[in-house]
Amino acid sequence: MNRALFIVVTIFPIVSLIIFFTVLQERNGDRANLKLKHIDEEALKWLAVYMPPSFAVLVHSCRNPTVSSLVEQLLAYRSSKDELVVIVIQHCWHKETMRRLKSFGNRIYLIQGPEIILPHEYVETAYNHFWAFNLTFHNLRFESAVVMNDSLKISPDFQSYFEFTMELLRNDLSVWCVSGYNGNGEKYFVDSTKPYTLYRTEFFSGVAWMILKEKWREFGTKEWPKVYFQDWIRQQTVARTLACIRPELSRVKFISDNNGLSASYKEMEAHQDIFLYNFIEDPPKPNLVEFEKQNYDRELIRKILESIDSLDYLTENQFTPVKMIYENEEDFTDIAKELGIKSNLEHGVPMNSYKGIVTTMFQSRRIYIIPSYIGKIQTELFGYK
Predict the structure, then answer these.
(1) Could you give the CA distance from residue 329 to residue 75 in angstroms, rounded to a whole number?
(2) Which of 41, 179, 275, 358 has the fewest CB atoms within 10 Å, i.e. the most exposed one?
């Protein structure tokens, strides 16, 4: 009796998981012949054949009627339909959400997500993102896409920001994505006068991010994970020393909505006041050469070396940049909590960090939180003392 119970309790679940992942692998394997279930077949055919050079905004939605607010903003702020195509993938057949999305007619492309039941929401999320990327880059042949969830609002220059940074994404092989989100972007921690200040970071926020088709091919078509795809991306990009570009001022912000796909982020958002860049005027833009790896690295080190030690900052001009040094993760957590910024680390990478360096603002002063091995960073990673 005990032997039979042991087999049922231990062996059966393992066999079930093996069967499930085998079926999932078969579903994922036939990428070239992916069958799409969508709302408007003729519109989708037109989109795939006649679409001019542009990028797509790919909105993942489920049981969330308020996604219509995001869609309204995307349509209101885009310069033309030919330059920014809005694709909404409805992963759940939710009547009210579908009714509101259908009301936009041919101004958006509304696509029904794959009808597949998976045993866990994280498995389902990974599969849905794989499916959506394959749809966007393989079937519809877009060269780039901005991925968003349904619980966001955007800045008026959302399209302009991603069009501007796309050039850097295409030309710098060390950059694999562009994010429109600053996770430490509360108004107290940013310089609101510099909307086009950009930063390199090894932290992947997973919020409103752009990726190119060739990077998707490099990451997704060979190794895409069956679960926890954002953690997998973080591991891959850190291992390959790749960076994302993120803004000083966020171009997206979470809204208070318990039904959206961004629920895991809203817990974090509940005690934040992310500053959303909200001006229609198009400010002067910097030369993107500044943010290419070699130039960016040298300038970052120069600024850190010219900053003053945190122990001396009270005696200096209040606008003089300050550096704060941490020895380990516990030290970093203490400093972050003291300042009020995010103290969490993902796979050992602090929010917004680049080579372990976190750049933020505090009381109108630029702060560099740097690891104690900064000398090693200078010589080994940046190539000079």
Answers:
(1) 43
(2) 41
- Provide the CATH number for the domain around residue 105: 3.90.550.10
The owner of tokens 């300050």 is 322
305-338 tens-digit pLDDT: 889 887 666 566 677 899 999 999 999 999 999 9
pLDDT tens for residues 252-311? Answer: 998 866 556 555 554 555 446 899 998 877 778 889 999 999 999 999 999 998 898 876
Instruction: Kindly report the three-state secondary structure assignment for every residue of 137-202.
Output: HHHCCCCEEEEEECCEEECCCHHHHHHHHHHHHHHCCCEEEEECCCCCCEHHHCCCCCCCCEEEEC
Alpha-carbon distance values, 109 to 147, 159, 260, 331 (Å):
15, 18, 20, 48
* Residue 29 phi, psi (nearest 5): -65, -40
Q: Which residues are CB-neighbours of 222 under 8 A, at least 6 positions away?
A: none
Query: Do 103 and 171 belong to one domain?
Result: yes
Residues 265 and 336 both lie in one domain = no
Which CATH number is 353's domain given?
Answer: 3.10.180.20
Tokens of 221: 């078509």
What is the distance of C-alpha 210 from the center of its chain?
7
Interacting residues of 232 by C-beta distance below 8 A, sequence separation 6+: 225
385 residue type, one letter? K
pLDDT in tens, 71-108: 999 999 988 777 789 999 988 778 899 999 999 998 99
Q: What is the mean pLDDT of residues 183-205?
A: 93
CA gap 153, 180 in Å, rounded: 11
Residue ranges of the alpha helices (H) in 85-157? 95-102, 121-134
pTM, to two decimals: 0.82
How far from 51 is each of 42, 55, 165, 263, CA to CA, in Å?
13, 10, 22, 33
- What is the number of domains present in the chain? 2
368: nearest Cα among 313, 294, 289, 315 = 313
